[in-house]
Design goal:
Strand order of the largest sheet: 1-2-3-4
Largest sheet: 4 strands, mixed
Number of strands: 6
Low-confidence stretches: 1-19
Distance between the termini: 20 Å
Shape: globular
Strand content: 15-25%
Number of helices: 3
Number of domains: 1
Oligomer: single chain
C-alpha cells in the first residue's frame, strides 16, 4: 500500500503543470508516465495551504524543488526543522534520506504530498515531522 493509498488522494489530469488536492478518493500515480517531470501544485487536506513543486531528475533520483509554499510564521525555518535542503538559496528542495530517495515521478509525488501535509501541521501546531 502506498502513502497515497493511505492519504486517499486521486489522480488529476496530466499536464506539464498539474494541480491536485484532497477530495477523499485515491490518486494512482502509477498510471502516470514515469518521466512526467515539471511543476505540480498540491493543496492540503484541510485546504489551509497550497504548495508548488518542480520535479527534476538529478542522476538516478528525482529532486523535489519547492517553488511556492506558505510562510512558516513564527516557526523555525532552518533546514533541519523544515526538512529542506538549500534554504538559503532560491531553490530549496525536500530533504529525503538517501535510502528513500524517489526514483520515479509517482514516488516523488508521494513525498511531495507527505511533506506538504507535515509542513502544514508544523506551521499550524509546531508538530515535528517524526
Amino acid at each position: 500500500m502506498s502513502l497515497l493509498d493511505v492519504l486517499g488522494l486521486r489522480s488529476p489530469a496530466q499536464s506539464t503543470r498539474t494541480t491536485f488536492d484532497w477530495n477523499g478518493e485515491i490518486i494512482d500515480f502509477s498510471l502516470w508516465a514515469p518521466d512526467a517531470y515539471g511543476e505540480y501544485s498540491y493543496t492540503t487536506r484541510d485546504r489551509s495551504c497550497t504548495f508548488t513543486f518542480d520535479l527534476k531528475r538529478v542522476g538516478a533520483v528525482i529532486r523535489i524543488y519547492i517553488l511556492h509554499q506558505p510562510s512558516y510564521g513564527r516557526r523555525a525555518t532552518d533546514g533541519h526543522s523544515t526538512h529542506r535542503i538549500g534554504v538559503l538559496t532560491d531553490h530549496p528542495y525536500i530533504c529525503i534520506g538517501d535510502r528513500y530517495q524517489p526514483t520515479t515521478v509517482p514516488d516523488a509525488l508521494s513525498w511531495a504530498v507527505y511533506w506538504s501535509e507535515k509542513t502544514a501541521a508544523y506551521i499550524r501546531h509546531g508538530t515535528s515531522f517524526s
